[in-house]
Amino acid sequence: MAMIKTLPKSWPLLAGSVIIAVIFAAAIWAPQLATHNPNQQQLQHRLKAPGAEDHMLGTDGLGRDVWSRLIYGSRISLLVGLISVTVGASLGTVIGLLAGYFGGIVDTLLSRLIDVIMAFPTILLALAIIAALGPSLVNSIIAVGVASAPGFARVVRGVVLSVRERDYIQAATALGSADLRTLLRHVLPNVNSPLIVLLSVGTGSAILVEASLSFLGLGVAPPTATWGSMITDGKQYMDSAPWISVFSGLAIALTVLGFNLLGDGLRDTLDTRL
Amino acid sequence: MQYFLQRLVTSIPTLFGVMVAVFFVVHLIPGDPLLAMLGDSATQSQLDEAREQFGFDRPLPEQFARFVAQYSSGDMGRSIRSRRPVTTEIVSRFPPTLQLAIAAVLVSVVLGVPLGIVAAVRRGGLVDFVSLVLSTLGIAAPVFWVGLLLSLLFATKLGWLPSIGAGRPGDPISVVRALVLPSLTLGLRGMALIARMTRSSMLEVLGEDFVRTARAKGLSSRLVIYKHALRNAANPIISIVGLNFGLLLGGTVLIETVFARPGLGKLLVDSILARDYPVVQGVTFTIATAFILVNLATDLTYSVLDPRVRVS
Amino acid sequence: MPRFLLSHLRGLTTWLTFVGLVLGTALAQSPSAPSGTLRYGAAYDHGSLDPQLLSSVGDRQMANNVFEGLVRYVAGGTVIEPSLASDWVHNESGTDWTFNLVQGVQFHKDFGELTAEDVVFTIERLLDPELNSPNRSLMASVVSVTAPSKYQVRFELSEPDPAFLDKLANWFTFIVSKEAVEERGDSFGDDPVGTGPYQFGHWLPQQETVLTAFQDYWRGPPALAEVAFISIPDPTTMYNAFESGDVDIIFVTDADKLKRYANDSSIGVDSVPGLITRFFGMNTDFQPFANAQVREAVTLAVDREGMMTYLFPGISTAADSILAPGVLHVKRGVVHYELDLERARRLLAEAGYPDGFSVTFSVPNIDRFTLPAAVIQENLAQIGIAATIEVIETQTYMATLQTKGYDMFILTRTQDATPDRTLYTWFHSSEIPLNNWAKVVDPDVDMWLDRATTITDEQERDELFGLVQQRIADGNFYYFIDHENMIFAYHDYVIGFIGNPQRSFRLDNVRLEGR
Lengths: 274, 312, 515
Prior knowledge:
A: 274 residues, 11 helices, C: 515 residues, Dipeptide-binding Protein, domain 3, 2 domains, 12-stranded mixed β-sheet
């Protein structure tokens, strides 16, 4: 147990990176790593335990290979996670920049907007958006993206505000250099660090939200393999064939853990105050 | 007091914004929003009648004004599925969800604080390691998955606790028994966070000079530890509870589905699947409002305990 | 030996006391007073308990215990026996019927005695176009229904109806209290009043509907004090609840669970071949499905054998007919599907869809449908048809299916001993959109059905119904998957439960012992 004290300080960064690299590898080389077509049903081999024949992690209720579905499921999780967080970050950064830089009415309005979006618990917001637009891959991305935007907006706005006060900015403005250029050249670099940390942790929570939507049957439509819907599919076989739900849940937990560790590690390394 | 009023005032536009968002849920739906409100099985005459009654042929701002007026008077429309007023549906579902939320918060505090204390006092020991594992898993593992696993173990395999429902109203024991697994699952994340927070506050305090001095003077170490460490940790714990509450509310949606608890969260999910939009609107509004109120309360408690906050 | 007894004296004494208490309380229970609550885990929630308006099987099950008709089916079977009518006569051509009612039958909640007036009211209500009952057309041949005396009802039909008694045994002619309907209006479905052994207690939406024993039931009060229909749409939750003892009886659709329960001595399983057909349908209003070659191609792609062997062993039997084998005038062998992906692809190309097409496959949120739907979706993907599965909550699904309709849908049809109701409502063009969901418009079929349902010559009826079934089967508007067995599982303390080929069980003779 004393081992914990002697771990290198940067161990979260290392561990997180390794995990994420593995998941990425799974997503990129899915066709090579998967042993079967993830949607191929083999009813005669349904509910086989891990290790049976050439099914490393067993099969699900329709005879589909669990390992292959997990591998391909990583694509959806990463896709939705990364794209939605990018959408949210872009949206949030723009809002934050505008609010922080222009101040006044613009700031008040945009801050209220952020407050309103943050007034909805993330899952609730995603559900409401899905309820309106209907369940699909694209709508999941939109829903999760919108829900994650406020976090970015707040951080960016905070950075902009603090940078604005600095002397050299005021000096530059007094000297007449263009506002926009000042903004971009001086503000943006300061925003990078906290943004990267948020992106990392945000991807983790985006993946969790997507999994929740899939679990409720409101995510990507079947038969596409997603980790969340695999948990749902495996739910009815929990006592006879637990591997379906257990492994897919582990996959989610591991991936989110990876992104969280990466975020923690980055935060420590970049020494940002978040 | 001034702070309280200030925060209250800033909450109002937020509430208004929430109303706007909820109003738009129906109008974002591809297709006729009226069909969405009444259900696909409405006859043409019913549709025409409703179009006039609800003013769907009016300009959007006027529709919104009607909507606000309707909601302010406590009328959230009627459920397409049950034909009962949405407010009745929501009110009848409140108790199980409220029970779950409170129980989850209790679990996270009542279990988290002692865990954190022990982890700090016996730093580097087994408990510390376990709490570390729990906290990392608690945040990364999907809450519905954890719920399924716990249900499998304690309800199905061991049969100690019920796997479904919220107990029979009027039978408090059954209600409590039905609460154990869901609240444990939901409180896990908060418990993990609070444990870590308590641990680090404790470690801070334990290292401080005056503690060593007090110890040297012979004062009961336990008393010193608890009084100062806990007071130090109180604020962060409250803020964690507040921050976590949003995730908690979101989690109730998932947990109520896993454990078939008839609460607001389950109502929301079922209504989305049934295209029962009036209920979707009403529940979304209710939960968002509750969240705003809880945030308000946590901010205020925070400010009461830490006067520095009021100044900023 | 004595030493053993002495040393375990304390344990033995405790044991004996315990046993004594249990026996004592068991004996102390009066056998005739209604006692106990039976909890049925239902996949459906209460929609409407108005007999003339309801359509879901869940509502039928509840209504079956709250209401009664003039006649009824023998418990567990399809033979007709008297119910509210003690006897009846009819003229030779079958166009004039007179029923004598049992006297002294009471309605629930003090709504008085059942009289012919209530029967007349019920039937007229069913026929009222304003009410828009989904089963109105079935009694269309009734020209008049009158009450010659307080306990006599007379029907005059425009033409003979060989399935007349069946219709009077079915749920949509269950007799309602005129006074109660007039008083409650639209909310009658949520607070019904009938003459059955159980009366409506309360409904907690999406949770449970509770019926309570009707003490003044004319055949004597039932043995159960309460029946709770607990709504558990999620099958895992339902099976868990059953296995942990939170519900007492459930309807089983999972082959693995069936196997397990059959081997469990503390669980009773009642399985009877159902008068039911499971199918998926193709709406001919949807462009590709208007083409007969496309429909045929679809039927060549479905791996039914795989489903039967691996997904549904013991649960159902593959269909070779539209109607269930037990139905009168069923024509066996009209349905004979092959699995031939090559031919399917060729047909699609010939029909003008070489690259396939997309379709939305709407499915009710129940595992009996979502499971086969997942297989069918994969099967169709093999020939290039991209079916997007859209899962919809059941009551909403039924409401939409009967109005707007779906392009591709999956469901079951419960049938009667006679084929009239089923075949007519399913395939007659006048039944669009209420029951003719594939929108079949075939003048020959209409003609055959019109004739067959109005004559009494059983041989000619057999021929005509045969023609209808052949034509519909050839058209491939539907893929008839299988006939499910009606399987109920219950804990051994449930005594007297009799299943039913239509899933419409009656609980008047069920009691609980030793729970």
